[in-house]
């Protein structure tokens, strides 16, 4: 959804998004795109049409706010590099701890400028745009794929070709970069991969019609209910598979763990059910599936095989230190799950010592203001013996505003007392 909005803004002909997915982060980007010049032609629950401005990005009079969304901040910073003037972008405190402000050097390398005006409480940067962007930019892809996606999206609108050199081949989150490139090409961009990165030729984006696929990370929490329940299956209606490699990878991992997903294209359903796992010890490479690492941590104590997750260090660069926080909170709930380390002593991932456990729960768990940690902890809480309270339900809007409704529909027993703290207290 966020890529469709950005590509719509960067085209100067109308675009249509079918089946729009309105999380608060998508909505916030949509509003920012309008302040950068995009106009909305028509909007219903089923589709939205809008017209972008191509290279003629407007300079917004006041700061563009991205709150806790690094994707929004990074991509808007790249777009602001096309404007003739200064754009201020702001983010909350969680963004100060993430690889965000020190990783926007590509804007300067291509002819714009970036100034860090952050305080100890907020991220604040000023981007000075230039319509004469072009040249070679270096991107560090070890910690996040989003910087590369941000640069790729604006690169066709530079005056001169853009050559992108990546620090470590293509780094983490490769499937997300593949989606960026696929959507750019669908809209007429010329982008080729090279040994060290990409080359993008100047051009224009043409209009496009894009249907938003189902969100496989949201789906992971439903797979989690199947993993933690004693028995039962879940059927997803109106399931639209995405073009994302990470989705395919995640469904394969689920199958290894003993959770089979069956897509029926005729009825547009996805059946999620428990089957025999494929082995007694499942080893998972997390480089390409960052968003479901917290869900996998929550599921690991409940599945039959022993689970080891490798190469998950980058997942600590998100809204909170997601690997560290999940392990801390799962252990607090009585799960046996431990971090694994690289040779340099950095957290690499985690592992369970054996198959299915019976964690006691019965505590209050903390989601650290992170929607994905909330839903992952709720997944584990549904399998625990005693009710667990979880703080932070007020952040669900970031990706899954209907989470409680869906949870109710799959038969989960919980008390979503919407207290100011947003406590969710699943029983079974
Ligand atoms: O491009 C994208 O849409 C995303 C890229 C990934 O970011 P990182 O590479 O920073 O993990 C992923 O975690 C995020 O949820 C969405
Ligand atoms: C993609 C996410 O957000 P951000 O844009 O902040 O990385 C997320 O919360 O998983």
Automatic annotation (TrEMBL):
It comes from the Bacteria. Its EC number is 2.5.1.19. One of its GO terms (biological process) is aromatic amino acid family biosynthetic process. The keyword Glycoprotein does not apply. It holds the Pfam family EPSP_synthase. Keywords: Amino-acid biosynthesis, Aromatic amino acid biosynthesis, Transferase. Pathway: Metabolic intermediate biosynthesis; chorismate biosynthesis; chorismate from D-erythrose 4-phosphate and phosphoenolpyruvate: step 6/7. Residues 3-407 form the Enolpyruvate transferase domain. It catalyses: 3-phosphoshikimate + phosphoenolpyruvate = 5-O-(1-carboxyvinyl)-3-phosphoshikimate + phosphate. One of its GO terms (molecular function) is 3-phosphoshikimate 1-carboxyvinyltransferase activity. Belongs to the EPSP synthase family. This is 3-phosphoshikimate 1-carboxyvinyltransferase.
């Amino acid at each position: 959804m966020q890529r469709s909005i950005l590509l719509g803004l960067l085209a100067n002909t109308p675009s249509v998004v079918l089946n729009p997915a309105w999380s608060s982060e998508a909505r916030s980007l949509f509003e920012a795109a309008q302040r950068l010049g995009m106009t909305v032609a028509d909007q219903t629950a089923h589709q939205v049409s809008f017209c972008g401005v191509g290279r003629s990005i407007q300079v917004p009079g006041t700061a563009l706010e991205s709150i806790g969304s690094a994707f929004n901040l990074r991509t808007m910073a790249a777009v602001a590099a096309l404007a003739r003037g200064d754009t201020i972008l702001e983010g909350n405190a969680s963004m100060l701890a993430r690889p965000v402000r020190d990783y926007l050097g590509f804007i300067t390398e291509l002819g714009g400028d970036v100034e860090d005006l952050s305080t100890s409480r907020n991220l604040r940067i000023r981007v000075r745009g230039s319509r004469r962007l072009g040249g070679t930019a270096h991107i560090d892809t070890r910690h996040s794929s989003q910087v590369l996606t941000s640069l790729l999206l604006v690169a066709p609108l530079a005056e001169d070709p853009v050559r992108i050199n990546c620090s470590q081949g293509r780094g983490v989150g490769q499937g997300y970069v593949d989606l960026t490139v696929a959507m750019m090409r669908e809209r007429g961009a010329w982008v080729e991969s090279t040994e060290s990165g990409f080359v993008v030729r100047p051009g224009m984006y043409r209009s496009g019609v894009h249907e938003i696929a189902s969100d496989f990370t949201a789906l992971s929490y439903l797979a989690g209910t199947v993993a933690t329940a004693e028995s039962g299956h879940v059927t997803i209606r109106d399931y639209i598979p995405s073009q994302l490699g990470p989705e395919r990878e995640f469904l394969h991992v689920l199958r290894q763990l003993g959770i089979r997903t069956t897509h029926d294209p005729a009825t547009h359903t996805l059946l999620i059910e428990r089957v025999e796992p494929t082995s007694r010890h499942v080893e998972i490479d997390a480089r390409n599936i960052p968003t479901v690492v917290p869900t996998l941590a929550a599921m690991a104590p409940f599945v039959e095989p022993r689970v080891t997750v490798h190469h998950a260090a980058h997942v600590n660069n998100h809204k909170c230190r997601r690997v560290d926080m999940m392990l801390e909170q799962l252990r607090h709930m009585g799960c046996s799950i431990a971090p694994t380390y690289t040779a340099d002593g950095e957290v690499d991932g985690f592992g369970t010592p054996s198959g299915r456990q019976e964690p006691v729960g019965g505590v209050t768990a903390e989601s650290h203001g992170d929607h994905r940690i909330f839903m992952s902890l709720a997944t584990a809480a549904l399998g625990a013996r005693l009710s667990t309270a979880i703080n932070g339900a007020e952040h669900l809007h970031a990706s899954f505003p209907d989470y409680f409704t869906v949870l109710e529909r799959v038969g989960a027993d919980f008390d979503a007392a919407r207290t100011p703290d947003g406590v969710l207290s699943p029983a079974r």
